[in-house]
Each structure stands twice: as C-alpha cells, then as structure tokens.
C-alpha cells in the first residue's frame, strides 16, 4: 500500500523536454517510475531516449491520457506558463498533478486551485514549489532522491523539501510507506490534513512524521485534525524556532506576525493534540524511532 502513488501509476511529465524535465525524468525512470510520456505541443510526435528507454512526446495532456492511460502528471513548466499547464491537466481530468515549479505567482496558484475545485476536484494537486512524492521501491514523482531510503512503515508529510530529504535519510534504516512534500507556498493543493487522513487510512503506515514551518496556521489546523481523527502515533518538527518576528524566511508562506504562526505556538498546538515534537530533525527522528521500538 501507499498513498497517492504506486508502482501501477502511469506518469507523464509536462515540460519533459526542457533541461530540468529531462534531468529529473531520467532520475525518476532510474527509480522505477512508470513514465509513459511527456507533453510539449511543439515536439508532439517525437520521442526522447533516456538510457535506452524511449519516451514518446504528446501534444497535450488529454492526448497523453488517451494514448497511454496516464493518471499522474509531474509539472516542470516555467512559472509564467505553469498555470496554463495545470489547468490543462485539470481539464483532462488526470487524477494527480504534481507541480514542482518554484516561483509561481500566488494569484496563479490560487486560480488553478479554485479551478480544480470548480471541476469537482477530480485532479489532486500536490504543490506548487514542492519536491513531489515518493513511494520507495515503487514510484517517484518529482525530485526527491530515490536512493536515500527504502520501503518501510513510516508516512512522511512535509512543507520543506530539504527537511523531507533529511528526515528520510535519518530514518532510512526503518523506511517509508510514502513521503509527500506538499510545498511551502501560501496557496497549495494537498495539505498536511489531506496527507494525514490518507496515512491514517493506509494499513501499511504505522507512524506518521509531520514537518511544518513558521507562518500561517496550517500546523494548528493539522493539530486539531489529529486530535479528532488520527489514531496512529504522530511525531512532528516545526522549522523556524529562531526566526525573527515579521521577517519572511525561506518559503513565501513562512512569515511570523505576533504570536500567530510562531514555531513555539505550533509546537504547543501539536503537543496538545498528543503529537511529540522535536526541536531538531534529528531529535524528531529519535522520537519516531523510540515509538516504533515500543
């Protein structure tokens, strides 16, 4: 089992023929991802060779779905064109759109998020500005290094890409059912709560690690959800304990205003919901290890 992505997932890459798309398509294929096509209207009908694997290029997401049965798209389209690419994926009713692109205008993200809702949320959006998701040993949709962990019983949901990688490496001997990087922009598709609900329902996930960061109230809302709906043990980490008030740090969404959005406030909300929260990623990994050891 896994959440959102399995070895059966048929993946296409919007923007596959660009430099970044080419690089990460090659890496995803090396991780065993079933990549069935790329999308570039200007190169439709051609194919790209990746170390002996020929991947066809289609003119649209709809054509790719028709020809291959694709159900996942990974978006490596530049920021100015990303909104149109995601809208195209939504119109084609692909099941999952993983938007890796950084620097998409918040207005554009809000627009395609609302558009997905207006179409009945048939397309789950992960991101933007995220590392994607991986089900180790099965499939990798995004830019998460595939060689830093193994299949296991931990579910991971994180706002931060680099902290996703660190936590996966810290707990590599135990392994992960799935790891989802949801992105740190102010407007994102899949949230902590969405991933928590999926991990709670996944019989092969025994423990959940949740990584948040300063700014907004997503972690507080997640804490409320955990208290009411999650029976599995959850450990947490909140990046930004030393961040100065009123200064944007890293992700566009990471800004503290008064007591709202501080790491301490988020830590207290999570602990009130029964979540054990580490002060560092390594301490958080140790908490997970202790719980699983019984």
Description:
With 294 residues, the chain is an alpha/beta fold. It has two domains: 11-126, NAD(P)-binding Rossmann-like Domain (Rossmann fold, 3-Layer(aba) Sandwich); 148-293, Rossmann fold. Helix content is 34%, strand content 23%. The strands form two sheets. Strands 3-4-2-1-5-6-7 form a seven-stranded mixed beta sheet, sandwiched between helices. Strands 9-8-11-10-12-13-14 form a seven-stranded mixed beta sheet, with helices on both faces. Strand 3 and strand 4 (53-58) form a beta hairpin.
CATH class of the largest domain: Alpha Beta
General shape: globular
Low-confidence stretches: none
Mean pLDDT: 94
Order of helices and strands: EHEEEHEHEHEEEEHEHEHEHEH
Secondary structure blueprint with pairings:
Layout: E1 11-14, H1 19-30, E2 35-39, E3 47-50, E4 53-58, H2 61-68, E5 72-75, H3 79-91, E6 96-99, H4 106-118, E7 124-126, E8 132-135, E9 139-142, E10 151-158, H5 161-170, E11 176-181, H6 192-201, E12 207-213, H7 218-229, E13 234-239, H8 263-272, E14 276-278, H9 281-293
Parallel strand pairs: 1-2, 1-5, 2-4, 5-6, 6-7, 10-11, 10-12, 12-13, 13-14
Antiparallel strand pairs: 3-4, 8-9, 8-11
Helix pairs in contact: 3-4, 5-9, 6-7, 7-8
What keywords describe this structure?
alpha/beta; Rossmann fold; 7-stranded mixed β-sheet; 34% helix
Short synopsis of the structure:
Helix content is 34%, strand content 23%. It has 294 residues and is of the alpha/beta class. It has 2 domains: 11-126, Rossmann fold, CATH 3.40.50.720; 148-293, Rossmann fold, CATH 3.40.50.
């Amino acid at each position: 089992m896994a959440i959102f992505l399995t070895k059966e997932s048929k993946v296409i890459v919007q923007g596959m023929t660009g430099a970044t798309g080419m690089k990460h398509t090659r890496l995803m294929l090396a991780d065993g991802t079933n990549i069935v096509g790329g999308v570039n209207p200007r190169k439709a009908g051609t194919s790209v060779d990746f170390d002996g694997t020929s991947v066809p290029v289609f003119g649209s997401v709809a054509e790719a779905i028709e020809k291959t049965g694709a159900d996942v798209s990974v978006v490596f389209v530049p920021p100015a064109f990303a909104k149109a690419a995601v809208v195209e994926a939504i119109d084609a009713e692909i099941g999952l759109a993983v938007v890796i692109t950084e620097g998409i205008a918040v207005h554009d993200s809000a627009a395609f998020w609302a558009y997905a809702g207006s179409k009945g949320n048939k397309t789950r959006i992960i991101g933007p500005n995220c590392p994607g998701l991986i089900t180790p040993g099965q499939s990798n949709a995004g830019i998460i290094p595939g060689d830093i962990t193994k299949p296991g019983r931990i579910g991971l949901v994180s706002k931060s890409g680099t902290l996703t990688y660190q936590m996966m490496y810290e707990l590599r001997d135990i392994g992960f059912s799935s790891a989802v990087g949801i992105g740190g922009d102010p407007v994102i598709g899949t949230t902590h709560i969405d991933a928590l609900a999926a991990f709670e329902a996944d019989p092969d996930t025994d423990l959940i690690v949740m990584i948040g960061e300063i700014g907004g109230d997503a972690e507080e809302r997640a804490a409320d959800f955990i208290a009411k709906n999650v029976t599995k043990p959850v450990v947490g980490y909140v990046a930004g304990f030393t961040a100065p008030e009123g200064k944007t740090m890293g992700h566009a969404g990471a800004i503290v205003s008064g007591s709202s959005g501080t790491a301490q406030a988020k830590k207290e909300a999570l602990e009130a919901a029964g979540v054990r929260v580490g002060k560092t990623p390594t301490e958080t990994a140790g908490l997970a290890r202790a719980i699983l050891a019984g």
